[in-house]
TrEMBL record:
Top-rank lineage group of the source organism: Bacteria
One Gene Ontology biological process: cysteine metabolic process
Catalytic activity, reaction form: (sulfur carrier)-H + L-cysteine = (sulfur carrier)-SH + L-alanine
Protein name: Cysteine desulfurase
Function of the molecule: Catalyzes the removal of elemental sulfur and selenium atoms from L-cysteine, L-cystine, L-selenocysteine, and L-selenocystine to produce L-alanine.
Family per record: Belongs to the class-V pyridoxal-phosphate-dependent aminotransferase family. Csd subfamily.
NCBIfam families on file: sufS
PANTHER family associated with the record: CYSTEINE DESULFURASE (PTHR43586), CYSTEINE DESULFURASE 1, CHLOROPLASTIC (PTHR43586:SF8)
UniProt cross-references to Pfam families, sorted A to Z: Aminotran_5 (PF00266)
GO molecular function: cysteine desulfurase activity; pyridoxal phosphate binding
Keyword tags: Pyridoxal phosphate, Transferase
Cofactor(s) for this UniProt protein: pyridoxal 5'-phosphate
InterPro entries for the chain: Aminotrans_V_dom (IPR000192), Aminotrans_V_PyrdxlP_BS (IPR020578), Cys_dSase_SufS (IPR010970), Cysteine_dSase (IPR016454), PyrdxlP-dep_Trfase (IPR015424), PyrdxlP-dep_Trfase_major (IPR015421), PyrdxlP-dep_Trfase_small (IPR015422)
Amino acid sequence: MSGATLDMARIRADFPILHQEVRGRPLVYLDSAATTQKPQAVIDALVRYYTHDNANVHRGVHALSERSTQAYEGARERVRRFINARETKEIIFVRGCTEAINLVAQTYGRTKVGPGDEVLITAMEHHSDIVPWQMLCQHVGATLKMVPVDENGELRLEQLDTLLTERTRLLAVTHVSNALGTVNPIKEITRRAHARGVPVLVDGAQAMQHFRVDVQDLDCDFYAFSGHKMFGPTGIGVLYGKAQVLESLPPWQGGGDMILTVTMEKTVYNRLPYRLEAGTPNISGAVGLAAALDYLDSVGREAIAAHDQELLEYGTQALETVPGLRLMGRARERSGVLSFLMEDVHAHDVGTILDREGVAIRAGHHCAQPLLACFGVAATVRASLALYNTREDIDALVRGLHKVREVFA
Ligand SMILES: Cc1ncc(COP(=O)(O)O)c(C=O)c1O
């Protein structure tokens, strides 16, 4: 087993779903960039919450509502600590990374971006960090610009200073590419954007499960991520925003909890973070996310990051032994993703044959069509890693790929 610093038998025992057969073979789960599996601690936290504490938050005068409110607000504080935000009001609970980005586009975007302005993104963004900006730019008459990528899958940052103009109102950039695994130098990018007075939104969907993220150190203005990609439940995510930036945003959705008073003439809005959280929130999701953060910290984020790097290195070398395989993305800093093509075999066929071997991977454009277009391909095979993966999982993938070659020989 891999993982010099992780007790892999113990970690794998924490994830009940991994211990099953799929199509008569032991499951090898290599699709964690799509969603991670959940440790027993997260499943237990959800069961505990619904068994003992379930009630609505913020409005009840009874004991259960108090407990539920404490659990929900406790989760907010847990997230604050996890990403080292200054204040809990900087943590807005949303459905996921996609909703977090749309929130910024619909509030910050609609008020701060006007006709003739520019929004800068990069060619390696997930569709969730492209489409909301396209929609915004079309709506307000602004222009969407892209930082290109090079053949290794790194951003061409030498062009950044020219692409940032006096009309740029926001730079949105992914921390880690979901299609290639490239890790972008966010601190440096933010420094350069801020030098031009441009705020920065970071899409952290693929970063959070792999390494420590410190929003104060990065100095970004917004950081968006999803619970389900870091061992938490689906339907919960976080938008972090610097307090002074969030304070300047208008409300987004109208409804309960985001108000102080309502008359037929006028509404007085609540303070942060409630102003941006209309309606009954995903309380159990927040509780489950807090349990996932506890789990990550109990394993140790530095040990997880080291395991990721070791497995990525092992996987890269192992895949290079497969004849006719072309690895995509050779960035100097990578995390969690092995993306590749098999000569003359469509990615979906590779995926189907691997599935028969019990190996779950993703095949397709990974919601990053502009990035794949830069490489002149429509689809790749993506094996993505999490802390529960081992060298044996990679070996099973490589064995499966040899089967693919036999079938298509
Ligand atoms: C880089 C990146 N950004 C955003 C998203 C969207 O996340 P969600 O679907 O959880 O909102 C994903 C999901 O694949 C992603 O990989």
